[in-house]
Amino acid sequence: MSLKKFNLRDLIADAADLLRQAGIEDSRREARFLAAWALQIDLTALLTRDVMSEDAAKRFQQAVDRRRMREPMALITGRTGFWTLDLAVSPATLVPRGDSETLIEALLEARPERQSRLRILDLGTGTGCLLLAALAEYPNAFGVGVDLSADAAVLASRNAAGNGLRERSAFLCGHWADALQGRFDVVLSNPPYIETDVISSLMPEVRIFEPASALDGGTDGLDAYRLLIGALGRLLTDDGLAIFELGQGQDEDVARLALDMELRVRGVRKDLGGIGRALLIERTAGPAVEFK
């Protein structure tokens, strides 16, 4: 793409048209967001600008070209928001999504005492978004995040520092909880849960640009849950709580895995779209209870 004009309104209009042709919904909004990013201003300040410098226009052009190829916006800008956090992102991890905030909402409702000295474990931590969001809400808690990717563990550690949470967190490279000793009050995880044969049909932003290891849940999408639930007996304290993110329609299958291990299913919390997104499991055996 060649953007020869430097009139900001024209640049945004041209970019929006190119993004629309690439199949991107709300292309005008995305073009404005990228223009603001290129200018290093917010969207409100964009309203007061009429022109873009040559350097900013080049930066804008490159960003639009990347977005036309369906690269996620967060990977282009290198950052995204999650809960109350500002996080760096990279191709080593999934881009945090708003649906995952359902796990934090569920945790806050299930453990309302914010001053609790919780020990929190986040398995498959990625950017560290779940663990860091939990630590931000529980100022006396300490957490450990584990990821198979060394690059992801380094990124999560950097995000902890950037959000003032370095002293209360540690990030390790490992295969789930294989190398861990001790028990935790809370275990969080957003594991890979997409069926292997579905991955090829995902939107390009996910299929092409996000790590397959963080997506592929095996033939039925449940491989990671089998491993995680099998480890809860040794990972959770007596009154410990695990919260797992779910894919659409997986709540009953994953709940059954927990019940088969004689764990107690506290319930499922739905996301804003009405999908059962967060499954709550307790170490104490017993009947499932209703949870919104």
Automatic annotation (TrEMBL):
Domain of life according to the entry: Bacteria
Occurrences of domain Methyltransferase small (ranges): 106-198
EC number: 2.1.1.297
GO molecular function (one): peptide chain release factor N(5)-glutamine methyltransferase activity
Keyword match Ribonucleoprotein: no
InterPro entries: DNA_methylase_N6_adenine_CS, HemK-like, N5-glutamine_MTase, PrmC_N, RF_methyltr_PrmC, SAM-dependent_MTases_sf, Small_mtfrase_dom
Catalyzed reaction equations: L-glutaminyl-[peptide chain release factor] + S-adenosyl-L-methionine = N(5)-methyl-L-glutaminyl-[peptide chain release factor] + S-adenosyl-L-homocysteine + H(+)
Binding site residues for substrate: N190, P191, P192, Y193
Residue intervals of the Release factor glutamine methyltransferase N-terminal domain: 10-78
GO biological process: one example: methylation
Positions with a binding annotation for S-adenosyl-L-methionine: G124, T125, G126, T127, G128, D147, W176, N190
Keywords associated with the record: Methyltransferase, S-adenosyl-L-methionine, Transferase
Annotated family: Belongs to the protein N5-glutamine methyltransferase family. PrmC subfamily.
Function recorded in the entry: Methylates the class 1 translation termination release factors RF1/PrfA and RF2/PrfB on the glutamine residue of the universally conserved GGQ motif.
Xref: PANTHER family: HEMK METHYLTRANSFERASE, MTRF1L RELEASE FACTOR GLUTAMINE METHYLTRANSFERASE
Protein name: Release factor glutamine methyltransferase
